[in-house]
Amino acid sequence: IISTSALKTVGGYALASLYFLKNPHILHKKKQTAFYCTHISHRGGCGERIENTMGAFTHAVEVGTEMLEIDCHLTKDGHVVVSHDENLLRQTGQDVNISSLNLEELPPYREILEVTFKTGVCTGSDRNIALLEDVFHKFPHIAVNIEVKENNSMLIEKISDLVKKYNREAMSVWASVDSTIMENCRKTVRQTGHLLNRKVTYLSSSIRLSF
């Protein structure tokens, strides 16, 4: 025999469950989405312009990209530059590392550059290695995915400082294939952007991301 109090308890629980089922926002705060991306430009639009240059970024934005995917390294004199490789042999023809050169010593890209993730080449009038700060300054409303390839605390801190300087906390995504680097980013970054636990290769305009 079920007591009256037990029936009341079960009934109250059932009514409460039904109420919260219909009104989930009371218990669970709705996620605030910073941005959606359906068009992401890998290496800033490599394949249509020379990868990771301001010319490539400008073209990508003009054709409607919603996120620039870029890679960053640190020069000898402490500037954060945008380049897929630390060693510049493939991109410039000179077998030198970015970390061994000052900003003004960086060589220009080759006139015709192979697209390494698919068959083809890219070219363009802009052959200069770009500064991350210039990207943030010129495209304040475009989301940027920053891949960090070196476990370099100074590089990570300088990127974080630029994210803060240009108020891009909600528009910046940090990524790396290396979990150790991601952990370093997590410790340094905190509130200065979104973190991806693994690298996502953005080759298709059909990918949709929300942050």
CATH architecture of the largest domain: Alpha-Beta Barrel
* Total number of helices: 6
Radius of gyration: 23 Å
Largest sheet geometry: 7 strands, mixed
Instruction: Kindly give the count of domains.
Output: 2
The number of strands is 11
Strand content: 15-25%
Summed over residues and divided by their number, the pLDDT gives a mean of 84
CATH topology of the largest domain: TIM Barrel
Amino-to-carboxy terminus distance: 53 Å
CATH class descriptor of the largest domain: Alpha Beta
The global form is elongated
Give the oligomeric state of the chains in this entry, treating copies of one chain as homo and distinct chains as hetero: single chain
The helicity comes to 25-40%
Helix-strand pattern: HEEHEEHEEEHEHEHEE
Domain GP-PDE: 37-211
Subcellular location: Membrane
Main location: membrane
InterPro entries: GDPD-Related, GP_PDE_dom, PLC-like_Pdiesterase_TIM-brl
Describe the structure.
30% of the residues lie in helices and 18% in strands. It is an alpha/beta fold and 211 residues long. Strands 2, 3, 4, 7, 8, 9 and 10 form a seven-stranded mixed β-sheet that branches. Its main location: membrane.
Secondary structure layout:
Layout: H1 4-22, E1 36-37, E2 40-42, H2 54-62, E3 67-74, E4 80-82, H3 89-92, E5 112-114, E6 121-123, E7 130-131, H4 132-138, E8 143-148, H5 153-165, E9 172-175, H6 179-189, E10 194-195, E11 209-210
Parallel strand pairs: 2-3, 3-8, 8-9, 9-10
Antiparallel strand pairs: 1-11, 3-4, 4-7, 5-6
Helix pairs in contact: 5-6
Main location: membrane
Keywords: Hydrolase, Lipid metabolism, Membrane, Transmembrane, Transmembrane helix
Subcellular location: Membrane
